[in-house]
Amino acid sequence: QVQLVESGGGWVQAGGSLRLSCAASGRPISSIVMGWFREAPGKEREGVSCISSSDGSTYYADSVKGRFTISRDNAKNTVYLQMNSLKPADTAVYYCATNRGSCFSRDFGSWGQGTQVTVSE
């Protein structure tokens, strides 16, 4: 079982940047598909970004393409989400999760506890 701990959330004005971290323990993330998700008040949890384990391919929701970048540091067993040009619509609790399938499957494994991101006008 992989344990995940997110950090890096906070408050930022529109146009600002934040970098979220997802530190994993229990298993090397180099062999795991990792994803970032977010859940805004009153809305369903949605996928934001994913990085594959095989070739490092990355995928993004249309709403964040060009603004967010997912990456992994296998030496630190950590996945990052660099968020630039933040908008109030990005306000949500952000979660990282492992996926036992591909970035297109919903076979999720472990989830972190979430980190709050608040973007003000």
Account of the 3D structure:
The chain has 121 residues and is an all-beta fold. 0% of the residues lie in helices and 52% in strands. The protein contains no helices and 11 strands. The chain has strands spanning 3-7, 10-13, 18-25, 33-39, 46-51, 58-60, 68-73, 78-83, 92-99, 108-111, 115-120. Strands 2, 4, 5, 6, 9, 10 and 11 form a 7-stranded mixed sheet that branches. A 4-stranded antiparallel sheet has the order 1-3-8-7, with no helix packed on it. Strand 7 (68-73) and strand 8 (78-83) form a beta hairpin. The mean pLDDT is 96.
Rg (C-alpha, Å): 13 Å
Straight-line distance between termini:
40 Å
The rough form would be described as globular
Q: Compute the number of strand runs.
A: 11
How many H/I helices?
Answer: 0
What share of the residues lie within helices?
under 10%
Summarize model confidence as the mean pLDDT.
Answer: 96
Most strands sheet:
7 strands, mixed
User: Poorly predicted ranges (pLDDT <50, ≥5 residues)?
Assistant: none
Report the structural category.
Answer: mainly beta
Question: What is the topology?
Answer:
Layout: E1 3-7, E2 10-13, E3 18-25, E4 33-39, E5 46-51, E6 58-60, E7 68-73, E8 78-83, E9 92-99, E10 108-111, E11 115-120
Parallel strand pairs: 2-11
Antiparallel strand pairs: 1-3, 3-8, 4-5, 4-9, 5-6, 7-8, 9-10, 9-11
